[in-house]
Write a structure and sequence with these properties.
Blueprint: H1 7-43, E1 52-61, E2 64-74, E3 77-78, E4 84-87, H2 98-114, H3 120-126, E5 135-139, H4 142-155, E6 161-166, E7 177-179, H5 193-197
Parallel strand pairs: 1-5, 5-6
Antiparallel strand pairs: 1-2, 2-3, 2-4, 6-7
Helix pairs in contact: 2-4
Length: 198
C-alpha cells in the first residue's frame, strides 16, 4: 500500500520523480543514439539503419598474448554484456600478424552464426549472442578492409556492411580516414557527430 501522508509519502513522491527523470534521460539517450545511427546510414549510404554494429581490434604484448576484441553498439548504446575477447589459438600466426589475427577472430565469430552448434552447452558457453550485425567496423586501412572482405567472401557473407577506420596523423582524433569496399577513402569534418560516434 502507498502511504497517503507524512515522511513516507514524500519519499515515495521523491522516488517517482527520480524514476521519471531517469526514464527521461534514458529515452533522450536512446533518441540521440537512433539519430546518430540514421545519420551514419545516410552518410555512408548503408542499405539500412544499423541496429547492431560490431567493432573488432587486435592487441598483443611484444608479440605474445595475442587477443582479438569485439565491442557492440546498437540502438540502446554500447552493449557491454555482449563484448567478447578472443584468445588467438592459431600456432602459425607470427607476432604482429594483424591479418592472421583478424582472419581467426572473424572466422570464429561468423562460422558460429552460419552454422550454430547443435550442442546447447557449447552454444551457451561460446555464443550467447546469435544476432547478425548490420555493420562491421575494423581498426585499419585499405589493406585490412580488403583482407576482411576476402574473409567474408570466403564465408559467403554478403549482407554485412564493412568499414575500416585508419587513425589520423599522430593518432589525432577527428582526422581519421574511413574506408569502405568499392569507394574512395572518406574523410568527415572533425566536428561531425557521425565521425565522433565512429
Amino acid at each position: 500500500s502507498v502511504p497517503q501522508r507524512g515522511e513516507k509519502t514524500e519519499l515515495v513522491a521523491h522516488a517517482l520523480v527520480n524514476a521519471r527523470e531517469a526514464l527521461g534521460r534514458k529515452l533522450a539517450d536512446t533518441s540521440s543514439q537512433q539519430k546518430l545511427l540514421k545519420a551514419l546510414a545516410h552518410t555512408f549510404s548503408l542499405p539500412r539503419v544499423p541496429r547492431r554494429i560490431e567493432v573488432y581490434d587486435n592487441s598483443h604484448i611484444q608479440g605474445s598474448n595475442a587477443v582479438g576484441a569485439m565491442i557492440v553498439a546498437g540502438e540502446e548504446g554500447f552493449r557491454k554484456n555482449q563484448y567478447r575477447k578472443f584468445n588467438i589459438r592459431s600456432e602459425d600466426i607470427t607476432p604482429g600478424d594483424d591479418f592472421g589475427m583478424l582472419r581467426e577472430v572473424l572466422t570464429r565469430r561468423f562460422k558460429r552464426l552460419i552454422n550454430p552448434p547443435e550442442d546447447n552447452a557449447a552454444k551457451a558457453k561460446d555464443d550467447d549472442f546469435p544476432q547478425w550485425p548490420d555493420l562491421v567496423i575494423i581498426d585499419g586501412g585499405r589493406g585490412q578492409l580488403n583482407a576482411v572482405r576476402e574473409i567474408f567472401e570466403g564465408l559467403g557473407l554478403t549482407q554485412v556492411s564493412l568499414m575500416a577506420v585508419a587513425k589520423g596523423p599522430d593518432r589525432d582524433a577527428g582526422r581519421e580516414t574511413l574506408f569502405m569496399p568499392g569507394r574512395e577513402a572518406i574523410k568527415l569534418e572533425p566536428r561531425d557527430p557521425v565521425l565522433y560516434f565512429i
